[in-house]
Prior knowledge:
Its main location: membrane. The protein has helices at about 1-25, 30-65, 65-105, 110, 115-135, 140-175, 190-225, 230-255, 260-275, 295, 300-305, 310-340, 345-375, 380-420, 420-425, 430-445, 455-490, 505-535, 540-570, 570-585. By secondary structure, the chain is mostly helical.
Amino acid sequence: SAVHILLSITAFLTNSLILVALHKESSLHRPSKLLYRSLATTDLLVGLVAQPLYATYWMSLVQEHWSLCRYAFDAAYITGSALFLTSLMTMTAISVDRLLALLLGLRYKQIVTLKRTYIIVATIWILSLVTSLCALLDDRITFLYRLITIPLCLVISLASYTNIFRTLRYHQVQAEDPVQQQPSQLNVLNIAQYRKAVYSALWVQLALVVCFAPFFIVVTVIAHSKTHSSHLVILRGITVVLVYFNSTLNPFLYCWKISEVRQAVKQTIRQALCYRIMSPTNVSSGGSHTKSFHELLCSPSLVGGLQQQLSICFVAVDILLSITAFFGNSLILVSLCKESSLHPPSKLLYRCLATTDLLVGVITQPHMALHWMSASQEHWSLCRYARDAVDITGYVFILVSLMTMTAISVDRLLALLLGMRYKQIVTLKRMYIIVTTFWVFNLVASLSGFFDHRVTYLYSSLVISFCLVISLASYTKIFCTLRYHQAQVGDQQQPSQTNALNMVRFRKAVYSALWVQLALVVCYAPICTVSIVIAYTKKYSLLLVVTRKVAFILLFFNSTLNPFLYCWKISEVRQAVKQTIKEALC
């Protein structure tokens, strides 16, 4: 599960970067660029949908949540099948596109148009999705479709590249022969550039074949095996990891083999580090004044056209989430005060997390509602005040939540590794110091945005990256140690320090923390994606404002969701909440 979470994050981030870079890149032929964008989209969805579902399948399997396990497996199977078929057919379309560029010459741009490519891409997506969904009715339909599509795509790709290299070889012989002086259609092509494009596509195609081949070999062996051993299950899991690794690998191949994409990615990263979000559509007549998207959120030029009904809906949702976050997290805090079986330092971390969610409901969401009300009523000074309050408090609470979740993952790792020494080293006093440091550092960094917003941006970028890496490393180490301990118990070896722990209870605590961490990542990912799009878009629209707002709603929904996760996954908290509610009703 930890490996799938890591690959999910890297696939999501790298393919998002590729899509932004391809959006900015203009030298590539537009139909060819559309095919690469479709391929990057499938890889992005693998990281955003398929891999989290597969990680959920493994976690529910270990915890013996069989209904969730079956749902997660079916969902992962359907999405994985659809995205794989889409990737394979898109790669085949790219190989045919390269062949047509060679054979058609000047007629290539007349025949291979953007409209026709859109139709082909849409057909690929629809066919792959429909046939994958057919697995719910009869798996043989999906199997038969794959049995026809996979060999057909491989044969077409092989034939296309064979024809390409034979034609290039023939052209090279013609060019070297002084007798052959007649011009051909190939002379209209920049052959050197064309060769690079062909080799780029071929590398991506080979990577797909190499990553997927072991999986199909293992699946074939399992299908024809009379006995299913645990080694085959583990081997299948490893090959699935390799399959999903392809979605992380492809962006690096694009940057390595396609110079236009590499330059666009470099430019995108430079702009991200400088954080210059400027709009070319808001230049004054003198050409010297520009407004950022942040400033335009409180100006009639961008939000003035927003319908009153939509603003009221946004305000109503903010108020609803504010109320639920307040009551839900208040109940959790009261219950945690009563709960005594949890280790005090661990309980302090959950109290800190519930406090940030409570403050989101008490401070940030009401100010967000105030921002939309003042914008709809065109009270721009009040709008700017509310916007700044949301920015500062949002930064503080989001970063504190993320750092607290990282501290929880490290706390669980220390509980496993230290054994009996855990309670001596991880004390309540030390934990108070750590939590206080989180709040002070993040508050200072957020307030620094008043002087230079790049300071806050750089700080948050570093913190988010470090927190994700540390959390991932912690959970990976935890699961590796647990597996080693399980093997020790199975072999009846000498007891180790981990025997001092109640392993069943420890596993539950780890999975509880992991579920909360996954919920945070899922709820925060859309706003990060929208922020990247805003940073590099050339023209701001009302649709972008609305999309950003919807992403913020999902972000704030995390503060309402967490109390339910605590009650669902932490039995001690669930019992304390029940007792608190009973006492309140009596």
